[in-house]
Input
Amino acid sequence: MEKQKLATYFKTPFVVMDTEFTTWEGAYQRDWDGPNEWREIVQIAAVKIDPTQGFKELKTLDVLAKPCINPQLTAFFQELTHISQHQVDTQGLSFPEALQRFADFAEDLPVWSYGGDDKVLLENCLFHQTPYTPIRPFFDVRMVVKLLGDKPQNYSSGTLHKAVGVQMDGHVHNALHDCRSIVEYLKHHFV
Output
């Protein structure tokens, strides 16, 4: 697909979202298949982007959710994300409340994520017996990265900005930082 056709997806406002979820050392390599390993969402972040204004960030969402199956965050997770147990205990919402905040934020706009965030949201809906219906269809930014000639397996959502030589402050594996990293990549190609 040529870049000009691909650019049509980024002509009107859209949302980029990312999540952080419970993890343990080696869980990624095991695909969360260890004893009692579940990908419970702890952070949902999103940015609303207006490409008609140079990919201007219009609004942000950054909410924490309290995991129920494994309510105690691992030291590995806390070090990876810089999200503390205290933050989750004092600021965290229930997953259904956090999901509804995201659904309200996204409105009817297209939602882009880097990979399987929609799958993780669906898993969490099943854990919490919460309807998945308020969530819009997701598009995978990795497809765009591949079509533009980069290798998605070489980047995470939080490091994607490096593929286009953009320097960013912030912490990789903070969902809001990772959303902005995706936006920087798209902005570089489509502004």
User: Anything to note?
Assistant: The first strand starts at residue 14 and ends at 21.
